[in-house]
Write a structure and sequence with these properties.
It comes from Pseudoalteromonas ulvae. The protein has about 110 residues and is an all-alpha fold. It has one domain. It is built from 5 helices and no strands. The longest helix has 24 residues. It is elongated. The two termini are about 15 Å apart.
Length: about 110
């Protein structure tokens, strides 16, 4: 679920303790965004904004699978592709849970 080189680079850039703190912030804030996304109708414009935000955060912290899924959500929402958007949104809870469960090892 995580690209180890990105996680390691974060530790090099900010130090071990701060990287642990930042990973906790990522888990907590991203969990809230996922909950918001899942509570919205798929045609809500907030889907684009929230998925974009989560995509950026996930990729910054090395959670590339989650980041790529959020990119699919964002692009599908922008294109108005309801079928692709529905499928990606259906995958979100499982991918997010697996990502956050694995992220705990970095805290």
């Amino acid at each position: 679920m995580f690209e180890q080189t990105i996680v390691q680079q974060l530790k090099v850039d900010v130090g071990d303790e701060l990287s642990k703190s930042l990973m906790n912030v990522f888990i907590n804030e991203s969990t809230k965004i996922v909950e918001q996304l899942l509570s919205l109708p798929i045609d809500d414009q907030q889907v684009i904004l929230l998925s974009h935000s989560l995509k950026s955060s996930a990729k910054t912290y090395g959670a590339l699978i989650l980041g790529n899924l959020c990119e699919q959500i964002e692009m599908s929402a922008k294109a108005g592709d309801c079928d692709a958007l529905s499928q990606a949104m259906a995958d979100l809870p499982d991918i997010a849970n697996k990502t956050f469960s694995q992220a705990i090892q970095f805290t």
